[in-house]
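Reviewers asked in the last cycle whether our approach scales beyond single polypeptides. To address this, we selected a multi-component target totalling 223 residues and predicted its structure end to end. The input consisted of the following lines:
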Amino acid sequence: GQQLNQSPQSMFIQEGEDVSMNCTSSSIFNTWLWYKQDPGEGPVLLIALYKAGELTSNGRLTAQFGITRKDSFLNISASIPSDVGIYFCAGRLGGAQKLVFGQGTRLTINP
Amino acid sequence: NAGVTQTPKFQVLKTGQSMTLQCAQDMNHEYMSWYRQDPGMGLRLIHYSVGAGITDQGEVPNGYNVSRSTTEDFPLRLLSAAPSQTSVYFCASSRDRAKEQYFGPGTRLTVT
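The resulting structure, written as structure tokens, was:
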């Protein structure tokens, strides 16, 4: 099946630092989505991207849809303790409803 | 709106038992999906539905059945539980095929 490579797999940072993570694929996607999952909860949508080159912000979060349509990145500025969790990227091929998910980036923040 | 709801939250089954995981949404979404989440594997699609009466297989459909008799409900049936089906199961819905999916809180299933 289609694969999304998400990196890094885990991050250990100090509170206040900026965070950057990305997803890459060998396939072209028409949609990129970024989710955050807290322990024991379902993934919650952070940002949705629908056009190549699109740059979208949600508070301290910024995500971009890569120009090649094969990658996307998520940045978090000035991290705070509640940013801790697992971040997933997901991509959609063509007009399909099916999403392909990355393996996740586990973010840990030292106060 | 309650969004996407799932029951039960936790379940323990013995090998060979059957059960149904319930999923409901009150957003009038046409598209619904079931995923399983295993450590280091992200989320993998089991089955999905593009509307009432229409279902299709995802990436890992074996051992699971679904039906979509109403827009609101999309139950997932385990026919004969196996230890390999120990996982966390998430239901998701979206307004249409091109839009973002919203997830339920998950069902943690253990098969012994």
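DSSP finds no helices and eleven strands in chain B. We regard this as preliminary and will revisit it once experimental data from Aim 1 are available.
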